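Batch manifest, entry 17 of 40.
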Amino acid sequence: MSTYVFPLPEQPSVAVRGSNARYAVSRIFCVGRNYAAHAREMGGNPDREPPFYFTKPANALTPSGATLPYPPGTQNYHYEMELVVAIGAPVFKVTPEAAQAAIWAYAAGLDMTRRDLQAEAKAAGRPWDTAKGFEQSAVISELVRASETGLLKSGAISLAVNGQPKQQGDLGDMIWSIPEIIANLSQLYHLQAGDLIYTGTPDGVGPVVPGDLITGKIDGVAELTLWIGEPA
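Output type: structure tokens
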């Protein structure tokens, strides 16, 4: 039997609606610029640039309803409201049609971002890790099984800060559909149960400060809330 120098960390996991069992998470993939208006908002050109990927550590997961301290190292802390897809079967180099069978569940999520650090990294041609992959940067609601929702092709996605609408979009506005994302990502990775995919955000991203309340909703999936606390 193996022994460890330090205790094993807790397994990152997400609650599942209607079940006491939890979904154990191994990896978090995120799709960049998957809504045309947001691509333009970030200075990109969706007519020329396909979506791309970055990752967050699994221990960045934070459940809806939490209060997060304003993170260190930033003066421009942003929300990005997203649909999250949970993979439930192994897939590798599959077609979009075959990829549909791997969709196990959906959730509402927030890709929290240190936007000033991201801008600095972009300007220097450096990775985005400090801007995207920091502690508690992947907020998520409970998972809702795809067997309850069917394949999501459309549906309103929205976010408000202190009750003021900030993001309004539709899942049908994605440049790449959910099956296309999974199929494309499977050309690069052996996807498996335990993988989450944050599928991109509509335009309207912006900053929050301590004391703010974020509320988000994806019709037919879930709602989430997040309070922004004082710096730790």
